[in-house]
Amino acid sequence: DAGVIQSPRHEVTEMGQEVTLRCKPISGHDYLFWYRQTMMRGLELLIYFNNNVPIDDSGMPEDRFSAKMPNASFSTLKIQPSEPRDSAVYFCASSPVVDEQFFGPGTRLTVL
Amino acid sequence: GIQVEQSPPDLILQEGANSTLRCNFSDSVNNLQWFHQNPWGQLINLFYIPSGTKQNGRLSATTVATERYSLLYISSSQTTDSGVYFCAGGPNFNKFYFGSGTKLNVKP
Fold it and tell me: What is the average pLDDT across A70-99?
């Protein structure tokens, strides 16, 4: 398996634009996680899915953020509208069980 | 939320040395984990250890849940061990808090 795949790897956008980050988990993994890493706030768990169902999105910072998992092989994290303070590295991880996570390489987002 | 304190914040070792990293939680957690982020940013899950001791090669971890702390041991350190080590945990995966990390630099 190729591991967790995230795209794009780098994204530069302007404030107010919609941003969509994508994640393809490892096949057969029932859990998918979205994390954000910034210098100021460190690593934060935003949301996680179990069998394509969002368990709790209370970690999502604002209503501007939304995440979906339409099927077992694809998830998106959308920011609309984006703001400079959303600049961060966004990681996706998947796991066969909730305690063994495999991380993607991350998407570095810069909002100008 | 739960406060997670990691120590030391920075650590420099000579290759071959041993080290102990510590993680303290302000409240009980049920899902304590250790992660390693290498200098290129890749994150790896090292241990899921809500209690007890686990070992994986040169790494081992011990969690004393009743006292709300966990230790990560690195023996015979190698340059590839360099990076940042994070611990994280919470009452469940809906509330999952990370420490600020221990930055390790292993010199050849």
Answer: 93
